[in-house]
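B., you asked whether I could sanity-check this one before it goes into the benchmark set. Here's the sequence:
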Amino acid sequence: MKKRTGEIIEILNECYGTEYVCYLDYETPWQLLIATILSAQCTDARVNIVTKDLFRKYTSVKDFANANLYELEKDIKSTGFYRNKAKNIIACMKDVDSRFDGEIPRDIEDLTSLAGVGRKTANVIRSNIYRDPSVVVDTHVMRISKRLKMTKESTPEKIEIDLMKELPKEHWILWNIQIIAFGRSICMARNPKCMECPLTDYCRDYSRYLNRKNK
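And here's what the prediction gave me:
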């Protein structure tokens, strides 16, 4: 591990702790899988509001596998892209039921073979359910990893590869957890709170911020 990377991790550990936290509410692995599918282009807070009633209405993998498409669309409409999400959730749960006996698989190839499940969603399951070292690349991780010069890539898959090389394996899961907290509180996409940031020494954009501020 590079000295620079170690210093960034040390600061994040001090600011945000090292506890494993999931920002989506769930009680079972299949609930987390559905919540993660719903979280695409949607805030975790909105997903948690929707799933509170959703998981009372549909209480098993089979319930979702046999759901009426149009009814499910209405149930999840406020999460956005609801038609595609509803179609994927039903197809995904049908596969989980028929191919995996109702159990959410652990293997990333099995997970990504499910409808609506890409590497990000698969890694959320692997890290939160199975505690398998995994790098989850969401919008916060994409934005901030580039700002911290941990990657120059723009696609989630390539950023994941870079971070797997850059970070110690024992910190793969924590990176997403800490970066989400950091991204929500300080390093926002717009109007980041640079004057409150503990990582300005490592930031690609801080000098640009100073230049704008001093004009």
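One thing to flag: The chain has twelve helices and no strands. Otherwise nothing jumped out at me.
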